Structure formats: C-alpha cells, structure tokens
Amino acid sequence: MENLPFYVYLVFGITVFVGVFLFFKAAHYSKIFLALLVIWIVFQSVISILDFYATTDSTPPRVALLLIPPLAMTIILFSIRRGKVFIDGLDIRTLTLFHVIRIPVEVTLYWLFLHKAVPELMTFEGRNFDILSGISAPVIYYLVFVKMKLSKSALLIWNFICLALLLNIVFNALLSIPGMFQKFAFDQPNIAVLAFPFVFLPSVLVPLVLFSHLAAIRLVLQDENLTVKLNNE
Question: What predicted TM-score, i.e. pTM, was given to this entire model?
C-alpha cells in the first residue's frame, strides 16, 4: 500500500475515536466495555504494526482474527443473561445517532480506493451504498426521537435496511481480501484493512455498527411502548 496523505489517517482516526465514544455513551459510560475495547484495540494495533496480517496465504487465514472474536462476543452477549441486561440498558437514541460515523468511513474508503488500497466496489461508486445509512441516521434520530413524527415501526425498518447495507459491503469486502476466499477485485484487492490503522474498520467499527443495529432491533421489538416512553422522558 502506497504512502497515504496525512488527512486520510486523520479523518479515519477521528472517526474511530468518535465511534467508540458514541457507543461508550450509549452504554452509559460502562468502564467494563471501555476496558475490553481498549485492550482489543491495543492488541490489534500491535499485531497489525508487526505486519501479522500481511501474510495472506496462511491456513487458517489470519484475517479471521479481525472478525471472529468480535462476532463471538456479540453472540455471547445476546445469549447470556448479563449480556442481555447490558443490551437492554443501551440508549437507543445514541445508538441511532452513532451511525453518522458511516459517512466519514465511506469517504475514507473512497480515498483508499483512489490510492489503490481498496477496490472500487467497496466505495459508493461501486457496490457500497452504506453511506445512505450515515446520511439518514440524523434524520431518523430527529423524526423519531425529537419530533416524534415516525413510529417505532419506521425505526425498526430503518435498522433492518441499514443492517442489510452493512452486510452487503462486509460480504464484498471480505471476498476482495487477498487469500483463499478472494472472489473479487484481483486487479486492486482490499489490502487497506490488513494494515494499521485501517484494521480498526473490520475489527472495531464494523462490529460496533453490527451490534448497534442488533441491539436497536431487540430494544424496539421487546418494548411495545418504546415511543411513548421516550416521549415521556
């Protein structure tokens, strides 16, 4: 990956910081959450700086270490009682606003494409429409939680649509990474996510976005009086 302009690193770094802070706020400033996430970030920083992910022909593929631990943690939290208590205590309003980070993420991906670090299909000029989630997030937040013009059904539908957009880009991104599972973008593969600091996209931001959608869907489905309760707060 060629040398990138400083502003690419700066914007992405700020995006990671804001994303972590917003989720930290949604979790009511949970120290346990923050401690675990910091440990995970430090771990990913160290191994990516040491070029652990630069080896793309290993078996099993090393890129799995970016994805499987956060996915496993998500499954565990949705399965155990303490995890469900944590999820049910999340602030759905902040979880909704959290998705604005997807705007600078998509801008960063476009810059990375211009510098031949990701394929075009991972940008809004290709198969990635995830920027719509980020653009619509403050609108949904305003209409649902401020003006109360949209119902919880609209919030639920929006979360499902944005979840589908997320899964679409994750699927295409994974199949564009060099290695045994690569199916797309052989001329310009997805190599950025294998290097520091962009490893934080699949290892931190994507899991937080996924978790936010799943948590919001759970919160809406389990509480029939969600809109009324929010209106009275």
Answer: 0.94
